[in-house]
């Protein structure tokens, strides 16, 4: 990576200590022109740039990018164990059995997301662990 060539002596900064972090989305005109060259979460392996993980955010917090409130609880905000019972929960059913299964699925997504760049990381999902 070009940043690695930066040195304190020559450039005033150690380029190896600079961490790049971005969105990693396939969208817009560049994707239409060069679909195989746009940076997305799935093709960032060994690029040296971290990407924001919306799957982790949505499962941990609840809701999604379109919902401004957190009416739909996530792993950290009460799904199954402290359900808020708000009536506009189209994404989350009110029965505990379904919520318990959803909580286990969310935990799997969170585990895989935290492993992130560990390409060879493996784990048993909630279904295999039963």
Model description:
This protein is elongated. Helix 3 runs antiparallel to helix 4. The termini are far apart. Helices cover 32% and strands 5% of the residues. It has two domains: 20-52, no CATH class; 54-130, no CATH class. It is mainly alpha-helical and 130 residues long. The protein is built from five helices and two strands, in the order αβαβααα. Helix 2 (28-33) links the parallel strand 1 (20-22) and strand 2. A two-stranded parallel ribbon has the order 1-2.
Brief rundown of the structure:
This protein has helices at residues 8-11, 28-33, 54-61, 96-115, 126-129; strands at 20-22, 49-51. The protein is mainly α and 130 residues long. Helix 3 (54-61) packs antiparallel against helix 4.
Given the helix and strand composition, which structural class is it?
mainly alpha
Roughly what fraction of the amino acids lie in strands? Answer: under 5%
Largest sheet: 2 strands, parallel
Number of strands: 2
SSE order and pairing:
Elements: H1 8-11, E1 20-22, H2 28-33, E2 49-51, H3 54-61, H4 96-115, H5 126-129
Parallel strand pairs: 1-2
Descriptive tags:
130 residues; mainly alpha; two-stranded parallel sheet; elongated; 5 helices
């Amino acid at each position: 990576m070009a940043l690695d060539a930066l040195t304190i002596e020559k450039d005033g900064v150690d380029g190896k200590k600079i961490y790049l972090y971005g969105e990693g989305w396939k969208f817009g005109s560049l994707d239409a022109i060069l679909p195989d060259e746009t940076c997305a979460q799935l093709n960032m392996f060994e690029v040296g740039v971290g990407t924001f993980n919306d799957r982790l955010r949505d499962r941990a917090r609840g809701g999604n990018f379109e919902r401004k409130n957190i009416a739909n609880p996530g792993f950290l905000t009460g799904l199954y164990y402290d359900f808020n019972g708000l009536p506009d929960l189209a994404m989350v059913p009110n029965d505990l059995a379904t919520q318990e299964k959803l909580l286990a699925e969310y935990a799997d997504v969170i585990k895989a997301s935290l492993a992130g760049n560990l390409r060879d990381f493996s784990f048993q999902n909630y279904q295999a662990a039963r």
